Amino acid sequence: MEDIRQNRLPPPQPLPPPPVVEDIPPYFRCPISMEVMHDPVTISTGVSFERANIEKWFFTYNKKTCPATMQIIVNFDITPNYTLKRLILSWKMNESCSSASSSSPRPPSMEYDDVVALLKNIELSPFKASSLKKLRLLMAIDDVVAVGAKPIFVQANGFEVLVGLVTQIAICESSNFANFEACEEALGVLSQFPFSKIEKLFELLTRPEAIKSMAIVLQRGSIEGRFYAMELLQQISKKGYDYNSLSKHHAIDLFKSILELASDEIIKKASTVKMTDSSIATHCRYGTLFSSALELLIEIMESSKKCRLLLIEAGAVCIMIDLLPDSNRSKCEKILHVLKLLSDCAEGRLAMAEHIMGIATVTKKMSTSNTATKIGVKILWLICNYHPSERVLEEMIGCGTVKKLVGILNGDGRSSSTKEKAMKIMKLHGSFWRRFPCFPYEFRDYFKLIN
Question: At 80, is the secondary structure helix, strand, or coil?
Answer without folding.
Answer: strand
